[in-house]
Structure of Rrf2 family transcriptional regulator:
Amino acid sequence: MISGKFAITIHILTLLTKFPNDFLSSEFIAGSINLNPVLVRKEIANLKAHHIVESKEGKNGGTKLAVNASNLTLKEIFEMTFETIGLGYAKNQPNPECPVGKKINQNLEALYDEMNKKVSAQLENISLEDFSNQF
């Protein structure tokens, strides 16, 4: 299902791109997003697992970008956040005797697959640096 995780992750990475030499605290980042620092730390942990950011503990600790923003595409960030876009399916199984019900989920699956291809194609051509230069 679509969530705000991609927007949160892009916000974090854009901030880190704007302050390349600084370790930003999760509180500072959370203040920019207007979000609980715990949720920010959760997304930072995912970025850290993908070796996109590095963190330092302590009084002057925080997080900073560990990669070149010009080499990281929004497609790669999207794929770190979700595997695919999914709008979901009905909770109950459709009636297999119905002409619509028997094929609705496979048709939705094909639609979602096409959506993912289009989103990936668009995001593939935008680097984090390109996106960050808009601010």
Notes: Helices lie at 5-18, 26-33, 37-49, 74-81, 104-124, 128-132. The radius of gyration is 19 Å. The first strand starts at residue 53 and ends at 56. Strands lie at 53-56, 62-65.
